[in-house]
Design goal:
single chain; Spore Coat Polysaccharide Biosynthesis Protein SpsA, Chain A; 32% helix
Length: 512
């Protein structure tokens, strides 16, 4: 069923006993190679020939298995997928330097460490249950292979104890073997994981060997959960979409709302802010046979005032929930239904947002976060931005959500006074979220509700826009954050008392 292989300078009965105790299988083949300093690649290739089973585990002799029955999970992963190599830590990127851990935002998995009495967890991405995160390589402290799915063996030109697994995984990946990271097995490594001169020698050898393929980056598939929901209540939802040009993006957006979700009690309000006559004709032609879509024309653009005007003067009375939506959104599942479910089950819901991905599959939004940086500046950003898998899963209470795709009760929106119209570039949606927190409402993010947000296709950030954005933050949003005590407990990395002390000392002039 399963073979476990490791090298050690002297016999380790305790390690054999630990493997047998935790693997969860009645039968497991354990091969302990006594290695007095020869290359690991020699022994690992020998193991590929000598092991009785197709599934082989290669591991260090200084690891602790924290998960019971981990062997059954490994077998299940291989039986239910077409992956050929699996590990507990890896990456989707290899830079031209060969230092695969240089970009932590693209690393995957979790490994615990213990050294000289200290214990810590290197968590590069959340745990994903039985899901496998596709990667280009995995770390050698623990990895499993299906021999029948391998495309190449270990390169015995790589001497010593470093980079053998990087070269092995990377070249198998290039030849078509799927490599992935699993998070349902937890391992503690009794090492700090430092590099040395041998590591540097092997790194340079790897770079020279693979120079034609470096740098290299994999674009993994977006993980989607098929969440079927039957709602008992179907409140009216009004989708507000400001747009200008980019008619094909607008069509894709609306098509995805109907095709991927199909929420039955929905109306769409398109606020056009300056499309050409030809583009307006195209929009009119597109919506003429579609029920419950209204086109409103404006001769100016201001995000806050246009959305406010549509809500005040055009949204129908039977609309209970507002959904603010950019024209470059494309739903990937029943996101609207999942958002409505939050309101049906939580009376004190403020805003609700979903997981948004850029067109290259990286995360754009997993909830708005407010935090204090290493220079003690108050900052606002999107959780997980620029990563592939570092996002909240399920339903999560957050600081706020982006109005690129954000739902809120119409009555609450009006009670707050809508979006603040003094902003010139952005952040009016962040202030709206803060106002919800001030009124003791909770803002929720839904990790299982997913859409593309093709932001780069519709937004140009020149120097003037960046200047206006900075002014919006410094002179409009930051004072609001500082003075709004209702949002202080929602900062991600500092407690309320320390934040109050920081504000008192550093931002005194803004509290007046």
């Amino acid at each position: 069923m399963l073979s476990v292989v490791y090298c050690t300078p002297k016999p380790m009965e305790s390690h054999i006993s630990h493997i047998k105790k935790t693997v969860g299988l009645k039968e497991v083949e354990i091969i302990e190679y006594i290695n007095k300093g020869e290359p690991l690649t020699k022994f690992y290739n020998k193991a590929l020939k000598e092991t009785k089973n197709d599934i082989v585990i290669f591991c260090h002799n200084d690891i602790i298995f924290n998960t019971k029955n981990w062997g059954k999970r490994i077998i299940s992963h291989f039986n239910n997928t077409n992956f050929g190599i699996l590990g507990v830590a890896g990456t989707t990127e290899m830079q031209s330097t060969g230092r695969w851990w240089q970009n932590p935002s693209l690393m995957l998995g979790q490994v615990k460490h213990t050294h000289e009495g200290k214990t810590w967890n290197s968590a590069y991405s959340p745990k994903f249950g039985d899901e496998i995160l596709e990667s280009i390589l995995v770390d050698g402290l623990f990895f499993a292979v299906s021999k029948n799915r391998l495309s190449t063996d270990f390169d015995e030109n790589i001497k010593g104890f470093h980079f053998y697994e990087i070269d092995f995984c990377f070249n198998n990946h290039l030849k078509g073997t799927k490599v992935g990271v699993i998070t349902n097995i937890t391992i503690t490594h009794k090492s700090i994981g430092q590099t040395n001169e041998e590591w540097e020698v092997n790194r340079r050898q790897f770079v020279e060997k693979n120079s034609q393929n470096l740098p290299y980056e994999l674009t993994p598939q977006i993980l989607l959960t098929d969440k079927k929901i039957k709602l008992k209540k179907l409140p009216g939802v009004g989708v507000v979409i400001p747009t200008k040009g980019n008619v094909n993006l607008l069509k894709d957006c609306i098509d995805s709302i109907f095709d991927m979700d199909g929420y039955p009690n929905l109306k769409i309000y398109i606020g056009d802010t300056g499309s050409s006559l030809e583009e307006l004709d195209e929009i009119e032609e597109y919506i003429k046979d579609k029920k419950n879509i209204k086109l409103i024309e404006y001769n100016y653009y201001n995000f806050a005032s246009i959305n406010n005007d549509i809500v005040s003067n055009h949204v129908d009375d039977d609309v209970e929930l507002l959904l603010f939506c950019n024209n470059d959104i494309k739903l990937l599942n029943n996101s609207i239904t999942q958002m409505v479910e939050v309101y049906n089950t939580n009376k004190k819901t403020g805003t609700v947002g979903i997981r948004l991905h850029f067109g290259d599959n990286r995360v754009q939004h997993s909830g708005v976060i407010a935090f204090v940086d290493d220079k003690y500046n108050i900052r606002v950003s999107h959780h997980g931005i620029g990563t592939y898998f570092n996002y909240h899963q399920g339903r999560k209470e957050v600081f706020g959500n982006t109005a690129a795709f954000m739902m809120i009760k119409k009555d609450l929106f009006k009670q707050i006074g809508g979006f603040k119209e003094s902003y010139t570039e952005c952040f009016e949606d962040v202030e709206l979220n803060i106002e919800c927190l001030n009124r003791k409402y909770k803002n929720y993010f839904i990790g299982t509700a997913v859409a593309y947000h093709y932001e780069s296709q519709t937004r140009n950030k020149d120097k003037e826009k960046l200047k206006r954005e900075a002014e919006d933050y410094m002179y409009r949003l930051l004072p609001k954050i500082i003075k709004s005590k209702g949002c202080h407990s929602n900062f991600s990395n500092i407690d309320k008392n320390n934040l109050s002390l920081l504000i008192k000392n550093k931002y005194k002039e803004l509290t007046i």
